[in-house]
């Protein structure tokens, strides 16, 4: 128990130690902020929850050096497909695309590839890495009260920071607070932010189980997975229709929709799902009448989607389910949450270091709110891949915001051109650095990174005297060709890999022109002045 008189001062208070909160804190600490994560639970998740890890999420985890540790807990090499069959053990009637790219497709566009990894394996890795980088995580430490420092609420636009009171008796004063505390977010309520319901897909019952084998024998479901690898099975048995999916560590999840119960709640309708009933269902769903499943946990839940009316209020921000609740359809919930945290965290770090203007935080809302809304709505559309699934939605979107030199933000989701334009992710290119092949993403510095055409001397001189560090890697004709850069052109890239500004140089430009253009572009990209296509 904390001493009630103990006051912890930090830069960023993150409420919630799920993937969204941990990603926010990791990115913030990496970019120079102090971060404290508080979590009401006693530990990280003890159940697998989400398992689909997208290409972009793996890029972020790779940035933090976690690739090998994540792979150690992955669910084998499973192709991105769904099998429709009467039972797990029976013949497959149809295969369907799950919306993720194959490993080969992903590696053509990225140094990483998607995989299946349970959330209860991923979260401890993120906690350990956050602590290694100097961040703090406190479990069994629920948020009780949140107020503006010196004020009575958090919904205003004050810049004095926040004060929080915790259930363990501690108090925290921070410059910023991040609500990563789920769909019933206390931070969101304290910030005075509303919630818009988007719809539901019904009430469901779910069981987590293990199908152990006799000594010396392979577990029966693992044998089926090895022979017939799929992300998920749609079970069409007339008495046990539902879905079955492997979730790592020999565990499986089975879920099915509850019957229409009139005025009864989902919990009331789920009451008939006793251990005996679950075993009866699992034997039929698997097609293994002698199966002896070991039940690890059950729950009933509503598959619902909702979005916060905004993701920012004053010094407070929302990420993950606190900002946009999604159903499991499409496998975007955990991935979107980690992307939110990564995008917000570097901004918080830059603000702490004095590198950011007010508009940089406005751009977080302008960029992430359309993504969260689109993915929440997509999660209400079952039945197959969606236009924003796969690499298009993961790597191919184009941000529009006040800090990106492109068309002004309009609240909609936009797909990029793939031609290295502002708002798009920098293309994947392999380059040779000091005799080693590196991905272009590996060259991103702690500040901005300026990729240039082959004549880069003027740009190097222009980048040397700016208030935010601008790294200029050695010019590489492969980068110039892939990005369509002329000899004296340049791309200004943020630490998240998004192109903030592009300048296609004109023949008469001088070194002084380049210095002026770059200075204004950097000012725009950190929110100190309106974004411009170029500074003439």
Would you give an account of this structure?
By secondary structure, the chain is of the alpha+beta class. The chain has helices spanning 19-30, 55-63, 67-72, 103-109, 119-132, 186-191, 220-227, 266-269, 275-286, 333-352, 359-378, 390-395, 457-463, 477-483, 511-525; strands spanning 7-15, 35-38, 52-53, 81-85, 92-97, 115-116, 136-138, 143-148, 162-166, 171-179, 195-210, 232-235, 242-248, 251-257, 294-308, 312-313, 316-318, 324-325, 430-433, 436-439, 448-452, 470-471, 490-493, 499-503. The chain has 15 helices and 24 strands. β13 (242-248) and β14 (251-257) form a beta hairpin. The radius of gyration is 24 Å and the shape is globular. The termini are far apart. Mean pLDDT is 92; it is low at 152-158.
